[in-house]
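quick one
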Amino acid sequence: MLLPAELIQSLTAIRSFDKEAFEQVHLSGEQVTSLRINLLKPVSEVAGIPLGECQPVPWAEQGYYLPERPSFTFDPLFHAGCYYVQEASSMFLEQALKQTLDLSGPLKVLDLCAAPGGKSTHIQSLITKDSLLLSNEVIRSRAHVLRDNIIKWGAENVVVTNNDPKDFSRLEDFFDVIVVDAPCSGSGLFRRDPDAIREWSPDHVQLCAQRQQRILADVWPALKKGGILVYSTCSYSEEEDEQLMDWISRHLEADPCSLHADPHWGIRETVAAMGGKGYRFWPDKVKGEGFFIACYRKKEGGHEPPLKVKKHPLALTKQEKEITGRWLPTEGKLFIRNQQTVYAWPLEQASLFSLLLEKMRVVYSGLKVGELVRDKLVPDHALAMSTVVSPVVSRAELTKEEAIRYLQRKDLLLNGHRSGWTLALYEGHPLGWLNILPGRINNYYPKELRILKDI
Ligand code: SAM
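structure w/ S-adenosylmethionine:
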């Protein structure tokens, strides 16, 4: 693995950089695999490895290192959304949020650059049920991947949008927290993805730094006074890290926040020229990839404007609500309709959801329950992936072999089940819907998500 000489040269000025150890760790071929458990769908093993045999990630309560990289594709629990495979250093976001905020109360959180959803699923696990996470991605195809990962995670307090950062000026003084996990030159991932080395150049670093400034300037008005900005990259370059902190100090009215990191973790504090404090993750010092994170508290801002929702979405009729109520409990939820599609929103956040629908390009919100067809509801895959399907709905526990066939969207032979819509389960965790008919079973696993490989 030949690291760009210009990158190495540019890093030598950084105090915590150890050239020899850094080059060695890239040459060693060592790979670190880590994941985070979804507390909505707890498990005690992943891909056949008991969690008891996995080392915890010390800065993330649900984070684990695996002793080897298993095949996640052929682990049904991966498809059930029981865990998210995520690089360990980036899980330090948990410390940034825990150390700067009171996470026990309702918060409005924006994850601005969110696809594919690692940080969003993590944030969702850390906030309360009555908090709101707006998970945004500017690139449309990536916003769809983000939506699918949010659905798989199974939460109901998330709205997924596909907006440009500048669109957030429509939500002035709105968020308690904004996370900008910025698009960057990506040097921090060289060990995992050597192909990324070819795309690296000093010009690209400059371009990324300018884009990062633009993104921060665009989204800044949407943060409340006293709100927290979390800025992170997976780049080692000072232009995107310390110099970006200096740009924040010069252009945004913000106080830097200090974070505590146990010295045993190997994370290095870095202080920018204008006093900003950042945290560097070097793969030769930390069990994880290259990462940088810094937090700021906004000094100035207006007052949170009162919510003025002009257009409320269509609510269900009594009969439609009764039909929907056969599938999930209705308390604490507002059911809305977009043509025939029914969504469930958390009742106490319904006005916020309406406002977002009015102002942003929403690609997903709350929980998509299904389609109303005459006097029936055809359940959506998202309902299966949630944790709220009524206990009266039929369930079929599958063996591992059957679960893989189900996820490949192949035919299944199951005996002894009632006909009708049935949740396909693996180890008690839903994978999706089956429709059991006399003499036939229809597999409703979404075509675009199916496993294409054979074991
Ligand atoms: N936060 C994600 C996670 O943890 O899974 C990873 C985000 S990745 C580092 C940066 C994201 O920013 C990408 O999804 C990329 O599409 C998006 N992006 C690219 N250009 C952007 C721009 N001009 N404004 C906002 N986001 C952008």
